[in-house]
Structure formats: structure tokens, C-alpha cells
Specification:
Bound molecules: S-adenosylmethionine
Number of helices: 12
CATH superfamily: Vaccinia Virus protein VP39
Strand order of the largest sheet: 3-2-1-4-5-7-6
Order of helices and strands: HHHHEHEHEEHEHHEHHHE
Structural class: alpha/beta
Helix content: 40-55%
Largest sheet: 7 strands, mixed
Radius of gyration: 19 Å
Number of domains: 1
CATH architecture: 3-Layer(aba) Sandwich
Shape: globular
Strand content: 15-25%
Number of strands: 7
Length: 289
């Protein structure tokens, strides 16, 4: 696969994120934040933020990683979160209240022009949704000083993560068993658009970044964070590929899927939460000095 973008996927366009998709994300923000702590650990270990650095957090959502970055770079440094969703940025401003070196901007990161003012651009799952990924990564490169770096966490292709695949397969089996036809979404669309290693490398390289590396990591996640089977089911049925399959089907189908998933989730509950394996990539690169 080259740097050409995979087909856009319903629910994940910039326009969707500026509207309904962000509202869904916001409705599950606490569960998602708890679920994604292991991803942050891998991301920040790779970013190696230093006191005094200026950080851009791309697709910052509710701002947890922006606040974490602000803490790591300290008062001489800063963290700027950019997100296309006004609602999520409002939440981020509330979440970051009292963090004096964090600020937030509502804008499309594909087009918004910064000076080359950042030492590092980071992202936790905020760089997979651009209309034109090469143009977007090129724009991000222009916001980082020569010698500065990119450190972004993205999902590997969907088939690599039990977290995605298990509910989707159980859901698909239940839906077709009830007589409804479905098309499984592409394994490399939407959140998984940078999941193919060669494609990710090609996109970021074509955008003018140097020393592009893609490191693969398996993470162990609690679906929805520590909590009950019902917490995890609520998240699964509100966000992600299975929800897209159920979106236009009768409520009775969702109820049947929930009941089938319940058995699997109960089996996976480890006393803390419903545990799954997830497969992510950390993309790192540098702006040529
Ligand atoms: C999967 S969420 C991740 C949010 C956050 N980084 C986190 O880990 O909780 C993706 C985020 O990217 C944002 N986003 C999508 N397309 C964007 C764009 N073109 N410019 C800026 N933000 C964008 C969405 O609004 C959303 O907040």
C-alpha cells in the first residue's frame, strides 16, 4: 500500500468528528480515558518529553494527554491541544482547569497553520481521520521546528486487536443469524487507516518527515476501564465498528447482540474489568534539521 489514503469510513470524517462522533466520544469520556491509560504509557515512554519543551497534542479530545504533557514539560514548557470538535475542546478546557501551561484550539489540524513553534507533536489516536493524510502530516511538520519530532499512537489494522474483532465477530454472527445482511467495515478504514505499517511509513515520509519509524506494541486493556461487564458493553455499543453495524437496525437486534456479548465479556472479566488485547503502532519521525 502506498501513501494513498484508504476509503473514508462513515462516522469518522472530520465533519463527523466536528459533530455527532465527538458527542458520542464525550458521553463515554471517563470510560475511554480509563481504557486508554496503557496506550498513554507507551506513547509517553516514546515521546520522552523534557522540561521546557513545547508540545502540540493533535486531536486532543477531552485533553487528558495534553494535561499529562503539560505536567511533564513543566512551567517553562507548554502543551497546546488542537481538536476539530468544539464540544470536546470545551470539555478539555474544563478538565485542564488550573493547568497554567496548557491551552486548547478548536481547528482542523489538517489545515490550521502554526509557526514552526513546537518541539514535538504528539497524538493518541487523533491523526487517523484526515481527508488527505499526506497534506495533514505535511501541515503538522510545518508546526514543528527543525530537528523536532512526531510521536503518534495509532491503531494497527482492526483484525490485529481482540478489543475490536471479538465484539465485531460476535455482533456480525448475531445480526446475520437474525436475517439481516451486513457488510463488515474495512480493516483499514477510519480509526485503522494508518494500521498498515508500510502505508503509515509512506504517508509520513511523503509529508516530508525524516527518520520515520513504526513500532508495534500489544497492550492489555480493560474495555471501558476498570468496571463491570455492563460498563464495557455500554462503551462497545456506543463507539466503534460494531455500533456502525447496528446503527440502522432495529433496537431488538442491539438487544440480542448485547445478550450474546454479555457471555463473552463475563468470561473475560478479570475481577477488575473486561480485559482484551489491543494492537497499536507508535509512529515516530523528525523534521529535517
Ligand atoms: C479517537 S479520538 C481521540 C481523542 C484523544 N486524543 C484521546 O486519546 O482521548 C479522535 C480525536 O481526533 C479529533 N479529530 C478528528 N479529526 C480531526 C482534525 N482534522 N483536526 C483536529 N482534530 C481532529 C476528534 O475530534 C477526536 O477528538
Amino acid at each position: 500500500m502506498s501513501g494513498e489514503s484508504p476509503q473514508p469510513m462513515a462516522g469518522y470524517s472530520p465533519a463527523d468528528w466536528a459533530g455527532e462522533s465527538a458527542q458520542r466520544w464525550a458521553s463515554q469520556a471517563d470510560r475511554l480515558e480509563a481504557q486508554l491509560v496503557p496506550v498513554s504509557e507507551v506513547l509517553f515512554a516514546a515521546a520522552k518529553l523534557q522540561p521546557g519543551e513545547h508540545v502540540l497534542d493533535v486531536g486532543c479530545g477531552r485533553g487528558a494527554t495534553t494535561v499529562q504533557a503539560a505536567g511533564l514539560v513543566g512551567a517553562r514548557g507548554s502543551a497546546t491541544g488542537i481538536d476539530i470538535s468544539e464540544g470536546l475542546v470545551d470539555e478539555a478546557r474544563g478538565f485542564a482547569d488550573g493547568t497554567h501551561n496548557a491551552e486548547f484550539i478548536v481547528a482542523d489540524a489538517q489545515h490550521h497553520r502554526f509557526a514552526a513553534q513546537f518541539d514535538v507533536a504528539i497524538s493518541r489516536f487523533g491523526v487517523m481521520f484526515f481527508d488527505d493524510a499526506v497534506a495533514a502530516f505535511s501541515n503538522l511538520r510545518a508546526s514543528v521546528r527543525g530537528g523536532g519530532r512526531l510521536v503518534a499512537a495509532v491503531w494497527q489494522t482492526r483484525d490485529m486487536s481482540e478489543l475490536m474483532e471479538t465484539p465485531l465477530r460476535i455482533g456480525a454472527r448475531t445480526i446475520t443469524g437474525l436475517g439481516h445482511a451486513i457488510d463488515l467495515p474495512p480493516i483499514d478504514g477510519g480509526p485503522f487507516s494508518l494500521g498498515d505499517v508500510e502505508h503509515a511509513r509512506a504517508v509520513v515520509s511523503e509529508a516530508g518527515w525524516a527518520q520515520v519509524e513504526v513500532a508495534l506494541h500489544d497492550v492489555s486493556l480493560h474495555n471501558g476501564g476498570p468496571g463491570s461487564v455492563d460498563d464495557a458493553l455500554e462503551l462497545t455499543l456506543t463507539i466503534g465498528p460494531l455500533r456502525m453495524l447496528l446503527a440502522d437496525l432495529p433496537d431488538a437486534v442491539t438487544a440480542a447482540v448485547r445478550s450474546e456479548l454479555h457471555e463473552e465479556y463475563a468470561r473475560r472479566h478479570d475481577g477488575v474489568g473486561v480485559r482484551f488485547q489491543g494492537a497499536i503502532s507508535i509512529i515516530t519521525a523528525q523534521v529535517p534539521a
